[in-house]
Design a protein that fits this description.
Elements: E1 5-9, H1 16-24, E2 42-48, E3 51-58, H2 65-74, H3 83-94, H4 101-110, E4 115-121, H5 128-140, E5 145-150, H6 158-165, E6 171-174, H7 182-193, H8 197-233, E7 238-240, H9 247-276, H10 287-290, H11 297-303, H12 306-317, H13 320-327, H14 335-340, H15 344-350, E8 359-365, E9 370-376, H16 378-396, E10 406-407, H17 414-429, H18 437-457, E11 459-460
Parallel strand pairs: 1-3, 1-4, 4-5, 5-6
Antiparallel strand pairs: 2-3, 7-9, 8-9, 10-11
């Protein structure tokens, strides 16, 4: 059985190379902001464990489609029982002809009975006079073909493109390679699998292998995140008492210890997660996941909203009234808080916590002449998990075409928030090695479930530059 082969075609600067780059995740695909970055046909095999499962050909944009159309229709390609033979005749006759330089490059791989992928920019108006000859050339091959509508600057003309292409293609899909997620790539592979009966099985296998690999990676990432939470909450932090310094100086030294330890463990976890995705640890992460200082106010705000912070503090600190107020989105105007008493959650709602609020400092131990950190706040567990969820989401959906701007919905629903707060409160109040296997499994299951849910809420923003070729 032959391996699936797809030739990516279209007008210049419509996103053909970016599409190939996104689908194969091959960083060697050359993409530029100007037309004619691609001047010859280049094959990009997609491999898993050294085996080529399918191949995409990147090709230049059409230049003289109208003239080529005139030649091959004059040779009877429309009426021929063997249109590919007419096409091969054209390639032989015009292989060295400068006027058809790009058309020859486009149709050489097509002549070997490949499926055709036509990429068009649906943010530009569809014009029969501009595109009819090239899309009819594709139809005249009678090969399986699919149109990919790329909304480079929006989908203003999407419907006109769909209407204009309906009679020419077996299938039409909307796909922006700059904003693609892992699931979006599988959707396109699924559409590819229906173009050729012989290729349905191998492409289904590709999708099964990719899904299986990603599920295994998510399981491993969940374990890494749980391990990081436990290691941080297990940390021992102490400073020798110095009578020449005041209490605040001792507290600041302890905070520095905790802050450094948390960052070191997050850095190590991020590197471990990166390796799980088969990427180099020096990968250029987006700024939103490079900063692992959870004691920085800006970083905390990105990873736990004020609303969720209030809920966490209320649930952990016992501020039932504040939790009810917060759950109602503030619409109770403090009735529950006033009735049931002011809790830690309400206090967190009206002011941003300081780094010191994440660390509970114990008293002076005269036996050891040290001051220790008594416990870490459960909120720190939320920050750790949300930070590493973001890392996983970026890597899970990372392609060679889109390397950053991936965000997830970190807000938890009330039931999840309550469960997580309960688990982390137990972690925060436990001493070293006292976590029960039941609690550890519950934490692992919770993290794993959230990593899977994140993929349905992932949002991929366009990068600052969006080259079309």
């Amino acid at each position: 059985m032959s391996k699936p082969v797809f030739v990516v075609t279209g007008a210049p600067n419509k996103g053909k190379s970016t599409f190939v780059k996104a689908m194969t995740n091959d960083a060697s695909v050359v993409v530029g902001p100007h037309a004619r970055t691609t001047t010859s046909a280049v094959s990009y095999p997609f491999r898993i464990d050294g085996e080529t499962l399918f191949t995409l050909w990147d090709t230049p944009g059409f230049e003289n489609a109208a003239e080529m159309h005139e030649v091959v229709t004059g040779w009877g390609i429309r009426e021929s029982d063997h249109p590919i033979e007419v096409l091969r005749r054209f390639l032989e006759a015009y292989e060295s002809h400068e006027d058809f330089r790009y058309e020859v490059e486009i149709f050489k791989p097509i002549a070997n009975y490949a499926c055709i992928v036509y990429v068009a920019d649906c943010s530009r108006k569809f014009s029969e006079s501009e595109y009819l000859r090239e899309i009819d050339l594709i139809r005249l091959t009678r090969l399986p073909r699919i149109a990919i509508l790329n909304p480079i600057d929006g989908d203003r003309y999407l419907e006109s493109w769909k209407s204009g292409l309906t009679d020419y293609f077996n299938n039409i899909k909307v796909f922006n390679p700059h904003k693609t997620s892992f699931d979006e790539k599988l959707r396109i592979l699924g559409a590819f699998s229906h173009l050729n009966d012989e290729w349905e099985q191998p492409l289904n296998r590709v999708m099964e292998v990719l899904r299986s690999q990603r599920e295994k990676v998510l399981e491993e990432c969940a374990r890494i995140i749980r391990r990081t939470v436990l290691m941080i909450f297990d940390g021992e932090f102490a400073v020798a008492y110095d009578g020449t310094r005041d209490e605040e100086e001792h507290r600041e030294e302890l905070l520095t210890q905790v802050r450094r330890f948390v960052r070191q463990n997050l850095d190590a976890a991020q590197k471990d997660i990166t390796r799980r995705f088969g990427l180099s640890v020096d990968v250029d992460f987006a700024q939103e996941i490079r900063d692992n200082d959870l004691f920085d106010a800006t970083v905390r705000q990105k990873n736990l909203s004020v609303h969720q912070r209030a809920m966490v503090n209320a649930l952990v600190g016992g501020g039932i009234g504040a939790a009810l107020d917060t759950a109602a989105g503030g619409l109770t105007f403090g009735i529950f808080t006033a009735t049931l008493g002011l809790g830690g959650g309400a206090a967190a709602y009206v002011r941003d916590i300081s780094p010191m609020d994440l660390v509970k400092i114990g008293g002076f131990d005269p036996n050891e002449e040290k001051i220790r950190v008594e416990s870490l706040h459960a909120e720190l567990g939320f920050l750790i998990i949300n930070r590493l969820r973001q890392v996983v989401a970026v890597l899970y959906n990372r392609t060679a075409a889109n390397t950053e701007k991936v965000t997830i919905k970190k807000e938890l629903d009330p039931a999840s928030l309550y469960k997580m707060s309960s688990l982390l409160k137990k972690m925060a109040s436990s001493r070293r090695y006292r976590y029960s296997e039941k609690h550890k499994k519950e934490l692992l299951d919770f993290i794993h479930d959230k990593l899977k849910e994140d993929q349905s809420s992932v949002h991929v923003d366009l990068p600052d530059e969006n080259p079309g070729e």
